[in-house]
């Protein structure tokens, strides 16, 4: 993966879906495989545009729960999703992605810090 510079300026549902997928996988591995849910901060307009995208392939294996009031999206990974990221290559891809793309999509979505 190459180094990312700057934030994404144009909305892309597919890129945001990929962000949710890989950040969820990275969080799972960083928790030493104990946490299969990841929370994201995302405003309702962006969430609904994301979900209105006809292609939802990147979100397979994830159960999404969105709280409009708190503007928090929770992505919970199922067993099949976690199994896909159990191999070393996929784990490394997710972890490297999380480091490089952590703030790339901040104009649209970010990890939710509960503290």
In short:
This protein has four helices and four strands. The chain is of the alpha+beta class and 115 residues long. α1 crosses α4.
Structure characterization notes:
- Helices cover 41% and strands 17% of the residues.
- It is of the alpha+beta class and 115 residues long.
- The chain has a 4-stranded antiparallel β-sheet with strand order 2-3-1-4.
- Helix 1 (13-30) crosses helix 4.
- It is globular and about 35 Å long.
- The relative contact order is 0.26.
Secondary structure layout:
Layout: H1 13-30, E1 37-41, H2 44-52, E2 62-67, E3 72-77, H3 79-84, H4 88-101, E4 110-111
Antiparallel strand pairs: 1-3, 1-4, 2-3
Summarize the amount of helix as a percent range. 40-55%
Q: Quickly give the structural class.
A: alpha+beta
Element-by-element helix/strand order: HEHEEHHE
Distance between the termini: 31 Å
Mean of residue pLDDT values: 92
> Which sheet architecture does the biggest sheet show?
4 strands, antiparallel
Side-by-side strand order of the widest sheet: 2-3-1-4
Report low-confidence residues grouped into runs of 5 or more: none
Counting DSSP E segments of at least 2 residues, the number of strands comes to 4
Total of domains? 1
> How many helical stretches?
4
Rounded Rg = 13 Å
